[in-house]
Task: structure prediction
Amino acid sequence: MFLSIKGGTQSQRKVASRLIRAIVAQPEFPANDVCICLKFHGIVVKESSLGLASFSGRVALIEIDTHLHGAALVDTIAHEMIHVYQFLAEDLAYSEDGSEFVWKGVDLTGIAYEDQPHEILAHGLSQYLLHTLEERAA
Result:
């Protein structure tokens, strides 16, 4: 895995690096030959979003709100890494024009983002992932 982290504070970069490396090291993670680029921004692109993940080939771009610290930062990174996992597993993709998501072959056009299956799963699985990492580290 190649990991690039830009912006944010030294503390944010350290937390992000440790967490992402721990997630990618898990046997359930579909591949370790991915390039992950994380950028901290003052304002994330999507309104009311704390993070955003996009994917192209084997490159994942994660954008995180620079105002996040502590548990909120960890939760958001874990959430976005679930989306990276979904892209790598090929469960999540973009529509042909790139404007909408496709989940397991089903176009999600017209479904509110927060009601889309990949988003619902990311909320639940990110907490499970963090709990699993904590248990395995003990």
Remarks:
- The beta strands are 2-6, 35-41, 51-56, 59-65, 92-94, 101-103, 106-107.
